[in-house]
């Protein structure tokens, strides 16, 4: 008996794009992370997030950055359109979060996107709606062209009905309050790291914001505001430059007085990568290193709070990682991780001595 050989067909481009989008945008918090990074890349000093139903109904971000030019609005949501690199060589010296031009495209494949934006030299703002990477009419019968409207300098992006066209994904995200917590987590981490930028995050119907930082806050102020004064009052600053390894570190780590059941780690590399530490990074060298550093200091099964920001020569970092990757690799990883561990250990030992001294008096 012969079996029928199935014929191979080329997938429709919209299907391809929707599948690709699903790999980058898994849930509202992912989408928001991309939008926040875009706002930061645009030089914003104020970023306001508004959320409805855990971001599934509405995810809106308003910034005061450079805006998008009217003439770029037609292609801004297409895949691989970016203002951040021009050639492959630029990848070696990239200083922005984004560079692949995939985020807005992906979001527009799985949500209804509207962008209202104004550059400083434009007399008015422009608003446009997008679907599947392309401009669409904002109302039936209208042309798809961006429409002039009133607005401040900067950009507002709304993503509505996320995954309206991906029923399986939609079904998997049935708990809006869980999604909202993840959103809060993302905003919290970016707010702490970007202490010169004010952030707010609010549910649409709520009177008060759940996160509200101001531009004058220091990193410690923001840690106190967002993680509480118990953590903030036990932090040690570890700041060191390793010229031979071409990297700098700045960390706020808790001393031996502080320990909790769950490790909180905020890790940033060249401002660029956000690690979501609560899952999937069990094997990471840095996490193991942290555990080793604290093993003799803290009671068994308890953990510190760590904020760690690394600035590594961009040429030594593998930037070509997929946007969803939580891990990033760099040259001389072992040596680098060891150097960080030593610096932390040294600082903790110093702090410990003074504590022993203090209790002896
Ligand atoms: P990437 O960030 O990788 O360039 P995105 O799809 O995230 O790709 O964004 C595409 C382009 O849209 C960016 O390169 C930038 O020029 C523009 N853009 C997106 N968001 C903003 C924003 N909030 N303010 C100004 N420009 C933006
Ligand atoms: Mg981007």
Automatic annotation (TrEMBL):
Q: Where in the cell is it found?
A: Nucleus
Residue intervals of the DNA mismatch repair protein S5 domain: 223-349
Query: Membrane-spanning regions, if any?
Result: none
Q: Which family does it belong to?
A: Belongs to the DNA mismatch repair MutL/HexB family.
Protein name as annotated: DNA mismatch repair protein S5 domain-containing protein
List the source organism.
Mortierella isabellina
Lineage, top ranks: Eukaryota, Fungi, Fungi incertae sedis, Mucoromycota, Mucoromycotina
């Amino acid at each position: 008996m012969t079996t029928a050989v199935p014929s191979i067909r080329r997938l429709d481009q919209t299907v391809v794009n929707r599948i690709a989008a699903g790999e980058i945008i898994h849930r509202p918090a992912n989408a928001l992370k991309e939008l926040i990074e875009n706002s930061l890349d645009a030089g914003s000093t104020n970023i306001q997030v508004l959320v409805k139903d855990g971001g599934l109904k509405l995810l809106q971000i308003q910034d005061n950055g450079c805006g998008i030019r009217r003439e770029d609005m037609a292609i801004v949501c297409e895949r691989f359109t970016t203002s951040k690199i021009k050639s492959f060589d630029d990848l070696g010296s990239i200083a922005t979060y984004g560079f692949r031009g995939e985020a807005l495209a992906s979001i527009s494949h799985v949500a209804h996107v509207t962008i209202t934006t104004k550059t400083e030299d434009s007399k008015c703002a422009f608003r446009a709606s997008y679907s599947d990477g392309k401009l669409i009419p904002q109302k039936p019968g209208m042309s798809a062209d961006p429409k002039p409207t009133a607005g401040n300098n900067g950009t507002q992006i709304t993503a509505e009905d996320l995954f309206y066209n991906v029923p399986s994904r939609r079904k998997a995200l049935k708990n809006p309050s869980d999604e909202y917590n993840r959103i809060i987590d993302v905003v919290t981490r970016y707010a702490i790291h970007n202490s010169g930028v004010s952030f707010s995050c609010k549910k649409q119907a709520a009177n008060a914001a759940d996160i509200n930082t101001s531009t004058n806050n220091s990193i410690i102020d923001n840690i106190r505001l967002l993680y509480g004064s118990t953590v903030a009052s036990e932090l040690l600053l570890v700041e060191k430059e390793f010229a031979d390894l071409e990297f700098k570190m700045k960390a706020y780590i808790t001393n031996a007085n502080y320990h909790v059941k769950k490790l909180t780690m905020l890790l940033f590399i060249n401002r660029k990568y956000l690690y979501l530490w609560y899952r999937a990074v069990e094997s990471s060298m840095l996490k193991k290193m942290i555990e080793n550093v604290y093993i003799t200091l803290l009671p068994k099964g308890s953990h510190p709070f760590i904020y760690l920001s690394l600035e590594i020569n961009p040429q030594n970092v593998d930037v070509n990682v997929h946007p969803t990757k939580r891990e990033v690799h760099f040259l001389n990883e072992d040596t680098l991780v060891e150097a960080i561990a030593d610096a932390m250990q040294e600082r903790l030992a110093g702090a410990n001595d003074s504590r022993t001294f203090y209790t002896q008096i």
